[in-house]
Amino acid sequence: MTRPESRRLPLYEAGEIEVPFVIAGHSELIDRDTHWEEHSHPTHELLWNEVGTSRAMIGSRIYTITPSIGLWIPAGIAHSGWSPGGTRQRAAHFGIRRVPSISPDPVAVDISPLLRLLLDRVDSTELDDRSRETAEAMVIDVLQPAAHELLLRIPESAMLQPVVDAVRTDPADATTLVEWSTRLGVSTRTITRQFTSETGMGFTRWSAAARAQHAIVLLGEGREIDDVAAAVGYRSASSFGTAFRRVTGMTPGRFRPQ
């Protein structure tokens, strides 16, 4: 088995380094599971994948990045990341002097076919200055936050840690709220209140969101929807599809390789 790779990058403040570009792209085929330690950029960053699913961790938030849903990270915001082997990862960096952030906080971005084509064009080494300026202006015009984001907030309290570990280790874990109440020695109301306080959602909704996030990884690997449904604890593809759409606002099929 190939050992995972760990990468270390610097922590920069926004604008700490002057860059000579408006938009600069980067593409890489990740040949083995790779973890990026916490770092930040002097530029705004847009992350998306051509193939596969990856994650970015910002504080207690985990964002899922796919070919259709990217992530905008404003300059200077510390984040770490994880990509499984086989991911074809893309990134675009935006100079902050020329490009205002589309959001003060990290936010999901729809990687539409038009935006993808424009980002590919900006990456071309054959553009003259005028054509590049036009393409960059069009990218900036098209960029906007997505209606839905693939985000999971991780509770940090010691009380909820066993619940978080169980669901993230085995998304098919069927332990109910009542059973967790007995195991933890607290009321169901206390668990629900703590989940809501830390994540903005109760136990049931949080568990569904955690399962959806894991399902997206499996779907990105090309797994059949029936198999993914079983792997994340649903008895049928239809019940999985309903729960998945409720969490993400999208169908599972959107995340399978085209």
Which terms summarize this structure?
22% strand, alpha+beta, Jelly Rolls, Arc Repressor Mutant, subunit A, 2 domains, 5-stranded antiparallel sheet, 6-stranded mixed sheet, 8 helices, 258 residues, globular
Outline the structure in words.
This protein has 258 residues and is α+β, with helices and mostly antiparallel strands. It contains eight helices and eleven strands. It has helices at residues 113-123, 129-142, 161-169, 177-184, 188-199, 203-220, 225-231, 237-248; strands spanning 5-7, 23-29, 34-39, 44-51, 54-58, 61-65, 69-73, 79-83, 88-94, 107-110, 151-153. It has a six-stranded mixed sheet with strand order 1-3-8-5-6-11, with helices on one face. A hairpin with a 2-residue loop joins β5 and β6 (61-65). The longest helix is centred in the last third of the chain and has 18 residues, at 203-220. The chain is globular and about 65 Å long.
> Strand percentage, roughly?
15-25%
Structural class by sheet pairing and helices: alpha+beta
Second rung of CATH, namely the architecture of the largest domain = Sandwich
Text of the CATH class of the largest domain:
Mainly Beta
Average pLDDT reading:
94
Under CATH, the topology of the largest domain is which?
Answer: Jelly Rolls
H/E element order: EEEEEEEEEEHHEHHHHHH
Contiguous uncertain segments of 5+ residues: none
Q: Into how many domains do the coordinates divide?
A: 2
H/I helix tally: 8
CATH superfamily of the largest domain: Regulatory protein AraC
